[in-house]
Write a structure and sequence with these properties.
about 325 residues; alpha/beta; 5-stranded parallel β-sheet; 13 strands; about 45% helix; disordered C terminus
Length: about 325
């Protein structure tokens, strides 16, 4: 098995530290964002206005010496506004392709649930295939490619909620949440006179991010832990409060991000704790609860916690450093 580069932890810590200069008091959220990046997934951030969802995406983009695209989703947004369009050039007598904002390393899809399902699908197709096809021509998106989509859970007027099949395309779903008192005091002190985003400088290149991605793929996951993943999936499919359980894509997603978490903890192998720590953000938004569970106001988070408590985990091997 290939060893991870010596600079892996330095690069990861540098990214976390830089983003933490802007998003104070939220190390867990920052960790999940970076795991989505390293695991080649996409992130759905759901929270009320003013929690720093957009700032989080901008901070990540500013920390990487790559390209950044922002899409403000509105009801009149067209698919061509997302992926781009061919425009006739009278001078050359040919069509010129004008790429849309999806052709970037970090793409912020702000308030994704405000656009029509057709426009949502244009972005989600790009997320799944990492390419777009326009007028019969397929164009690949540049790696790394991470979409951070935001949505507001409390305003439903004029929105088009993402169906379960589209939610399944997001590797992780997170909430920034309210800051602790000390963190909010720090926000008041640091944001009063200047915009901290203007002070962020890139700490990694796009090529280095691709190196982190490749290194995370080499992390070993034991057959016993793969069996644990399958047992968790089977438990969701048989749980009395779940109408539709984990798909094989969800099982693969949890394995992929668990590998990334192990790599960021300076390990070359996955442990049960990696899987358990990521189960809620990876699985909760993918489970379709039964009508009786929704009436009883049972949450998907609590169902995942119940399943983790029921399914026995395999023995963890002794933790060793990557050296």
């Amino acid at each position: 098995m290939a060893e991870r580069p010596d600079s892996f932890n330095d690069l990861h810590r540098g990214l976390a530290r830089t983003i933490g200069q802007v998003i104070q008091g939220k190390p867990e959220t920052i960790d999940l964002v970076l795991l989505a990046l390293i695991a080649e997934g996409h992130l759905l951030v759901e929270d009320v206005p003013g929690m720093g969802k957009t700032t989080l995406a901008k901070a990540l983009a500013s920390s990487i010496d790559g390209t950044y695209g922002r899409i403000q989703f509105t009801p009149d947004l067209l698919p061509s506004d997302v992926v781009g369009v061919n425009v006739w050039n009278r001078g050359t007598g040919e069509f010129d392709f004008r790429p849309g904002p999806v052709f970037a390393n970090i793409v912020l899809a702000d308030e994704i649930n405000r656009a029509s399902p057709k426009t949502q699908s244009a972005l989600l197709e790009a997320m799944a295939e990492r390419q777009v096809t326009i007028d019969g021509t397929t164009r690949h998106l540049p790696p790394p490619f991470l979409v951070i989509a935001t949505q507001n859970p409390i305003e439903n007027e004029g929105t088009y909620p993402l169906p379960e099949s589209q939610l399944d395309r997001f590797l992780l779903k997170v909430s920034v949440g309210y800051p602790e008192r000390d963190a909010e005091l720090q926000i008041l002190a640091s944001h009063g006179e200047r915009d901290l985003l203007d002070e962020i400088r890139p700490v990694v290149t796009a090529a280095q991010v691709n190196g982190l991605v490749a290194a995370a793929r080499t992390v070993h996951i034991a057959p016993a832990l793969q069996g644990y993943l399958v047992d968790l999936a089977d438990a969701t499919r048989r749980h009395p409060h779940v109408a539709v359980g984990m798909s094989p894509r969800a099982t693969l997603a949890l394995q992929r991000v668990a590998r990334a978490r192990a790599a960021t903890r300076n390990r070359t192998f996955v442990t049960p704790d990696d899987i358990k720590a990521l189960a809620v953000p990876v699985l909760a938004h993918r489970l379709l609860l039964s009508p009786s569970a929704r009436v009883a106001q049972i949450t998907a988070d609590s169902v995942v916690a119940d399943i983790l408590a029921q399914v026995p985990q395999p023995e963890a091997r002794p933790v060793q450093s990557a050296g």
